[in-house]
User: What shape does this take?
Amino acid sequence: MFGLLKRYRELLLVAVLLLLPLVVYFAHAKRQAELSRFDRTLLWLTSPVAKGIHWTVSGAQRGWYGYVALRHAHEKADGLQRRLDFYELERQQFLQDRAENARLHALLGMAEASPARRYQGARVVGVRLDPKGLQLITIDRGSNDGVGRMMPVVVAKGVVGRVHSVGAGTADVLVISDRNSSIASRVERSRARANVRGTGEPWSCRLDYALRAEDMVEGDLLVTSGTDGVYPRGLPVGKVTHLKRTGYGLYQYAEVVPAVEVTKLEEVLVITSPIDRAEESVDPTPAPTPTPTGTPLPGATPAAAAPGGPGAAVPAAAQASPAAPAAPPAPAAQPAPAPEARR
Amino acid sequence: MRTLFTFIFALLLASLQAGLLRYLGGGAVSVSLVLPCVVYLGLFAGNVEGAIGAAAIGYLLDLLAGTPKGLMTFLAVGAFLFCRLVAGAVEARSRTAFAVLSGVTSMVVGLGALFLTRLVASAEAAPGGRLVWRMLVEALLTAVLSPIIRAAMRKLDGLFTREEAGLLR
Assistant: This one.
C-alpha cells in the first residue's frame, strides 16, 4: 500500500491540487468568503506597485501637459475668457432661478431635512475589469480614510459603483457594469421603476424587472431610486437603449448605456456619510392627484407595485455578496436594515 | 525556493497589470500577464514543483479577480496539466509556440471560468456568451505579450539553475 502511494505520490499530489480547489469552489461559490489576513496582506502588497505606476505615468503626463502642450495657450486663454464672461451672465441667471426654486420648495414643504452628505475624493490607481471575474477598480483611499464596504462611489456624471472590499490605504470598487451589481432605478421622465444590472462588459448594462406597462422609451435617463439603501436618490445611472416590449410577459427588456464610462475614470468620490433610507426613498414627484372617483390619473405610476416588482430594494445579502445568487427583489416598501448595519 | 520566486514574480505582474491597464484603455480590453507563468511552468518545470506553482498562481488570480476561492486555482492547475499534455505531444518551447500556447490556454481558462461560474451563479448574475469575444481579445493580447514573460521567467530560472562547467551547449 505504502509502496503504491510512494510510487504514485507525484500523481496523487497533482490530483489533490487539481480537485481540492474544485471542491472548495463548489462548497463556497454561493457565499462570499471573507478575506483572511494573508489575503489582505497579498492585496496590500500589490497596491504600492499600482500606486508607483500611477505616480510615474501621471508625473510624465503632468510634465507633458504642463509644458510641452502649452503652445497656443494664449489664444486659448482669450477664447476661454470670452466664454467665461458669457457663463458669468448665465450664472447670475441661475442664481436667480435657484433662489426662486428654494422659495417654491419652502412653499411646498419640501425643505431639505437630511444633513449634507460627506464625500471622500479618491484617485483610480488600478483597474481589473476581468471578463473571468469581477469588474473592479482600485482607488487610493481605504479604511484609514473612512471608506467602508458598500459605500456608494460616484462622479459628477453619475454612479460608478460601490465599495466591494477595503484595505488600509486602498479599496476595490465593484463597478455598475459588473454582472453582480444591481441598482434600483427610476426613469427620470416618468418615474417608472426598474433595476439596472451589469452584464460584465464595461460599456453596457441591462434592465431588470421593468414592468411591461411602465412608461419607458429609448433615450430615457435612469436615475437611482434610493430604495436599495445603498445609493442616494437621483444620481444618473444610464440611458435606455434597445428597448424590447413583447406582446406578452410581465417585463420589458432594454439595454442601458451607463452614464459613467468606467474605462475612463480618473478621480471618483466615495459617499462616506450613511444614506438615510427613509429620506432617500421618498419620491420627489407629488403623488397623482386623485380624481373625484378616487382613481389615479391615467399614466400615473402606482405608489406600490406588486411584490418583486421593479425598482424594489435589492436585498442586502445580494448586494453584499457578488458571488451569491441574487434573490428576487423585495417590494420597495419593505424595510431594510440601515446601511450602517450592513457595513 | 523557485516556486516562491515564481509566485512573487506573478504577484508583481498582477500589480503591474492592474496599474498599466488603468492607462491602456482603462480596462476596455483585458490581458492576463500571469497566465503565461503557468504555461511556462507547464513547459519547463517539474510535475510537483509546477503543480504547486500553478496552484499558488491560481490562488493569487482568485484573490485579484474577486472570483470565489478555488475557481482560478482549479483552472490554473488544469491549465498547467493542459500545457504538460500539449508539450508531450508537440514541441512548444519556442517563442512562437509559447505565444500560441499562452493564447490558447488563456481562452481555455476563460471559457472554463465562464462554464463553472454559470454552474453556480443565479440566472440573473450568470455571465453571458457576450463575454466570449472579450476573452478572445484577452487571449490574443496575452499571446502577444507572453514572449516577454517567457524571457523574464527564463532569467528568473537562470538564478536557480547552475551551469555545468565544461559542457558544450
